Amino acid sequence: MNKTKTTCVYCGTGCQLWLKSINGKVVDTKPVMPPSFNPGRGKLCIKGWSVHEFINHPDRLTNPMIKDINGQWENVSWGKAIDYISDKFKKIMEENNGNKKIIGCLSSAKCTNEENYVMQNFARAVLKTNNVDHCARLCHSSTVVGLGASFGSGAMTNSIEEIVDAEVIFLIGSNTNEQHPLIGARVLEALRKGARLIVADPRVIPLAELAEDNNGIAMHHRPGTDVALLNGIMNVIIQENMHDEQFIGKHCENFDVFKEEVMKMTPQRASLITGVPEEKIIEAARIIGKGKNTYLIYSMGITQHSNGVDNVKSTANLQMLCGNVGRWATGVNPLRGQNNVQGACDMGALPNVFTGYQPVNNKEIQQKFASEWGIDQDEMDDETGLTVMEMIDAADQGELKALYVMGENPLMSDPDSNHVREALQKTFLVVQDIFMTPTAELADVILPAASFAEKEGTFTSTERRVQIVRKAIEPVGNSKADWQIIGLIAEKMGYSGLNYQKSSEILAEINHITPIYCGITWERLQENEAGLQWPCPNINHPGTVYLHKDGNFSRGKGYFSPISFKGPVELPDDEFPFVLSTGRTLWHFHTGTMSRRSKTLNERVPEGYVEISKVDADRLYIKEKEMVKVITRRGEISIKARLTHKVSPGLIFIPFHFEEAAANILTNAALDPIAKIPELKVCAAQIKKIQ
Ligand SMILES: Nc1nc2c(c(=O)[nH]1)N[C@H]1C(S)=C(S)[C@@H](COP(=O)(O)OP(=O)(O)OC[C@H]3O[C@@H](n4cnc5c(=O)[nH]c(N)nc54)[C@H](O)[C@@H]3O)O[C@H]1N2
Ligand SMILES: Nc1nc2c(c(=O)[nH]1)N[C@H]1C(S)=C(S)[C@@H](COP(=O)(O)OP(=O)(O)OC[C@H]3O[C@@H](n4cnc5c(=O)[nH]c(N)nc54)[C@H](O)[C@@H]3O)O[C@H]1N2
Ligand code: SF4
Ligand SMILES: [Mo]
Prior knowledge:
By secondary structure, this protein is of the alpha/beta class.
C-alpha cells in the first residue's frame, strides 16, 4: 500500500488528503491529520472522503479517439490524434489569414496551475489569440471585476482560519456548509464561540436555520434584490452614525457620491423590494454597524446575476463603510468554487490578462511575455479575447471555427444548452477530459487526460494558498497529463516552447514572469507544508494572510461605487409565474462527471429534482416525487418534484448536476455587461403536471 499526500480536487477549500494506492490503483482516501497543516483541520467532507471512487472508474477515457464519417468513435494513436488536430488548427489559421479570433480555448479550473499556464501560453503563442477563458466566467468573473474596481484586487481578502475570530459573520448568497463544508465548519466553530451570524439567502439553507437558533438573523429576500438589501442596510448604518468615518476619510474615496445613492434606499423601500421585514434590515445593520469586526462571505448568490458586478461592489461598499477591510477576521470573502479556479485566473486563463492579472493590451507586458516565450511580439493578439459565452455565440455565427476544450463541460454548465449544442456542432471541437461527457460526445476528437491523482503540480485554493498536487499512480490507460498533451500539439504546430520535462519547470517559468507568484517556488512549496499564499513577491517573503493591510488598498484608496437597484432581466409573468433558481447540493459536483461515478455520492442522490414549496405544490396538485415538467422560454425538462419548506412560494430550485434533467436547458443567457457572467440564479418558469 502506498500513501500519497495531495490536495482535494473537488472544491476550492484546498483540504489536504492521503490517497492510498495498491498495484497502481487508488483505493482509499484519508484526511491529513493535525499537527500537519490542513485547511480542513484533520477533516474532509463527504466528497473528499470518497474522492478515490472516480479515479479508477471503468468509464475513464483511456485512448485518443477520432469521430469517423459515420459518427462512430475510433481509437487512434497519440501520434495520429495530434497530427489530426494540429493539421486542422493550422489549416483554419491559414484559411483565415490574420484573424486572431478564429479559434478558442477553454482552460480548466480542475487542472493544475502549470496546465492552465501552458494552455494560455498555447493560445497566445501558437494560436495567436487571446480567446482563452474558463468556468470562472460563470462563477466569479463578477468578483474579479467588482473587487478589482473597489479594492484593486479581485481575490478573497482574508483567510479561512480567521473566521473563528469574527464577532459577526455575514453570509450572503453562499450555501457554505453544503458547498464549502469545511469552511462551513469554521462558521459553526465561530458560532460556538459566540459570533453572531447573519444570513441573506432566498432559500432556507442550513446555516440560515442555525443563525435564527443562535441569536442571529436570517433574511430570505427575493432573488436578485441584493443591491436593495445591502443599500438598505448601509442606509441604516449611515443614518444611525455607525459607519467608520476615520477609516473612510483616510483610506477611501468617492464616499459622498455613494452616500447620496444609499440614502435613497430607506429600509422601508428596501423591505418593499426585497420582501424582508424592515425590522430585520434594521437589526442586521445594527449588528454589523456596532460589531468590532464582520467577516463577510459571499458566493454564487451574489455573482451569477446580470448585475453581478453591482452586487459585488455593494458587498465591498458595506465592508469599507464599517472599516472591515485590511484587518484580521474581516474582509470581503468570495468563496472560490473549483479546486483551482483561483489558480486558473492567476495563470491568465482569461481573455484580458496574462499571469498575475497583467493586461494583454499593455505593450511592455506583451514584450515581456514575447521574450519569455521566444515569439514575435508583432504577431501577438493585441485585443482582449472572447469570453466563454461570446465564444459560443461566435461559434453559432460561424465566426469561431474551432474550440479546444480542456476539463470543462460547457454543454451542461453554460446557460441555454440548446443554443450551446447548436453552436458547438458548427465547430471543429477538441475535448480533453478524463470521462466521456455530453460535450465530448459532440467532439471531433477526444483526448484522454490524466486525473489529479496521476500527475504533479499545484492548485491555488480560495484563500490564495498554493499547495502541491502529488502523483499517486501512473496515468490510467494511455492518458497523459494535460500539460504534456498541449505540449505535443504545440510542438507539432512548430512551437517548442512548451517542451517541458516536468511540471516544476513550468512553475519556475511562472515564478519568473508573475510578480504575485515570484516567491512561490517548487522548492519552497516542498519545505512549507502549508503552501504559500500570494502575493508572495520574492523567495524570502512569507506570503500574505490578508490583503489591504491597515487600509492600504492594492489600488491605493478603496473606491465607493454608487449603485442603484436594477432587477433581474427575466421576471415571472402570467405565462411563466415561477422564479427558477439553480445551484448545487452537498452530494454532487457540477455536471456530475466525477460525483455521479462515485458510489457513495450517487447512492445518496441518484437523480435530479426540483424543489417546490408545499404551498405551490398543493395548489397545483403536485405530490412528492411526482414527475413534472419545468418549462422556460428556452426549453423544458421532466424532473421529480421535491416538496420542501426551503423555498418560499413562487420560487423553485434545480441543482444543475443531472444530465437527464439538465437545469441549463432552462436558464437564461442574459449577461452582466462588464463581467459577462450569465444570470444563472434567476429566470421565469412554469411547472406542469405530466398527466
Ligand atoms: N457539493 C458541491 N460543492 C461545490 C460545488 C458543487 O458543485 N457541489 N461547486 C463549487 C463551485 S465551482 C462553486 S462556484 C461553489 C458555489 O457555492 P455556492 O455559491 O454556495 O452554491 P450555489 O448553490 O450555487 O448558490 C449559493 C446560494 O445562493 C443562493 N441564492 C440564489 N439566488 C440568490 C440571490 O439572488 N441572492 C442571494 N444573496 N443568494 C441567492 C442560493 O439559494 C444558494 O443557497 O461551490 C463549490 N463547491
Ligand atoms: N445552471 C447553473 N449552471 C452553472 C452554475 C450554476 O450555479 N447554475 N454554476 C457555474 C459554475 S460556478 C461553474 S464553476 C461551472 C462549472 O462548469 P464546468 O467546469 O464545465 O463543470 P465541471 O463538471 O466541473 O467540468 C469539469 C470537467 O473536467 C473534467 N476533469 C476533471 N479533472 C480533469 C483533469 O485533470 N484534466 C482534464 N482535462 N479534465 C478533467 C471533468 O471530468 C469534467 O468533465 O458551472 C457553471 N454552471
Ligand atoms: S471541503 Fe472541498 S476541498 Fe475539503 S474535502 Fe470537501 S470538497 Fe474537498
Ligand atoms: Mo464555480
